[in-house]
Amino acid sequence: MKILVVEDNKKLASFLSRALSEEGYAVDVVADGATAIQQIQALSYDLVILDWMLPEMDGLSVCRTVRQRGCQVPILMLTARAEVPERIAGLDAGADDYLAKPFDLGELLARVRARGRRASLVDAVLRVGPLVVDRADRRATVDGRRIDLTPREFALVAYLAREAGRVVPRTELLAKVWETSFDPGSNVVEVHVKNIREKLGPNASLIETVRGIGYRLALSGS
User: Alpha-carbon dihedral of residues 21, 148, 188, 169, nearest 10 degrees?
Assistant: First the structure.
């Protein structure tokens, strides 16, 4: 999942970005409503975590604007306004979910996971040769053996499985599996692929390197 966090509190924004990234999500962060609308229109997100109290344009206005423009990206509204009328206003503006501040991180992550399960219901299980990736349960197996993957490794395998047979450029993997602002000169993709291949064992050849471009998950492996 690729998530946009819209939060002007720098400390909270950093905390959310770090927590979500550690769970394997790709996260972008913006601090105001106008920029949020631009980002939502320009990029494809699986979820927007939107603070109500933003400078100049509040979250409610952001929500209304993106809905009026036909964007159906799921929106989770965060706000200290916990009264029923405010919750109703947020939902009526187009928010899909609502979480009052202060919130428990575990609950927020559970809501994000639930949104991910609903979004991927149609193709939750991806099968590529001996590899099976269950995106709903965040579980991967090869020849029936479970692979112990970190959240980021799982996100990388899931993305390659979704694009099986196609060469996926490094830049695309950085944008989809990591933050768009991630240093393009980093060898983070290569390191993760190396670790995944080690865990795949005899099936390591499932992930093919296309020199100078990126990686491809083979439709059939050894």
Answer: -100
Angle between helices 188-200 and 170-177 (to 10 degrees): 90
What secondary structure, in 3-state letters, does the chain show? CEEEEECCCHHHHHHHHHHHHHCCCEEEEECCHHHHHHHHHHCCCCEEEEECCCCCCCHHHHHHHHHHCCCCCCEEEEECCCCHHHHHHHHHCCCCEEEECCCCHHHHHHHHHHHHHHHCCCCCEEEECCEEEECCCCEEEECCEECCCCHHHHHHHHHHHHCCCCCEEHHHHHHHHCCCCCCCCCCHHHHHHHHHHHHHHHHHHHEEEECCCEEEECCCCC
Tokens of 154: 């799982």
Q: Quick: pLDDT tens for 156-214.
A: 999 899 888 889 999 888 887 876 555 666 789 999 999 999 999 999 999 999 998 99
The answer on pLDDT for 122 being more than 60 is no
Q: What are 159's two structure tokens?
A: 């993305």
Instruction: Give tens-digit pLDDT for 45-93.
Output: 889 999 999 988 999 999 999 999 888 889 999 988 767 787 788 888 8
Structure-token pair, residue 84: 């029923």
Q: Which residues pair with 70 in a beta bridge?
A: none
